[in-house]
């Protein structure tokens, strides 16, 4: 059952500071703004990530993601992944047709397009995050799990998220109660294990991530909430 994007406020912006080991590696922002797309209300969510400081000197990252998410269904209509990470370069745009479970993937670098068959309820990397945040907090609680299929580049990746507990997390704004979520991901390509990522999201209707940890094949990454603007519900920092 797919839900509406009901827990997001127009104009919401979340900012994160990213660390690679002890290094201040960069920042990321997520901005959600309501637009009319394909004659229907959507959130246009823009995600930007950049490396900074000493890390940028030897590994330059300039990533832009966009997802147009249908507010009524919570499903993506259009997805952009335009990334430059060191010598790695990808620029894909995806158009989803959920009625017949197909999509068109366009490679903007070589100007080619391919058609793919997908599955019901397919999400992209950005829309999946907002779909998660629209879960009913009465059902998305400790002990619950959620299966989700995510479109990444030119493949469908099945994920399972489990809420494993609650924890008070320290942030720059104070302490706040969080749900601990473990996404079960593919190991061997980037992550050390299938449980290499841990997310802490506010234990309230916002479900805003305040910390994300990832154990990589080489080193570890941590993203921490650095700023927030125009969230729908008050955040109860202590």
Pick out the low-confidence regions.
186-193
Shape summary? globular
Mean pLDDT: 89
Spatial order of the strands forming the largest sheet: 8-7-6-5-4-3-2-1-15-14-13-12-11-10-9
Percent of residues in helical segments? under 10%
Order of helices and strands: EEEHEEEEEEHEEEEEE
What layout of secondary structure does this protein have?
Layout: E1 12-20, E2 23-37, E3 40-51, H1 53-58, E4 61-70, E5 76-85, E6 88-97, E7 102-107, E8 112-117, E9 123-124, H2 125-133, E10 145-152, E11 155-171, E12 174-184, E13 197-202, E14 209-215, E15 220-229
Parallel strand pairs: 9-10
Antiparallel strand pairs: 1-2, 1-15, 2-3, 3-4, 4-5, 5-6, 6-7, 7-8, 10-11, 11-12, 12-13, 13-14, 14-15
Key structural traits:
globular, mainly beta, 2 helices, 238 residues, 6% helix
Give a structural overview.
This protein has helices at residues 53-58, 125-133, and strands spanning 12-20, 23-37, 40-51, 61-70, 76-85, 88-97, 102-107, 112-117, 123-124, 145-152, 155-171, 174-184, 197-202, 209-215, 220-229. It is mainly β. The protein has one domain. It has a 15-stranded mixed sheet with strand order 8-7-6-5-4-3-2-1-15-14-13-12-11-10-9. The protein is globular.
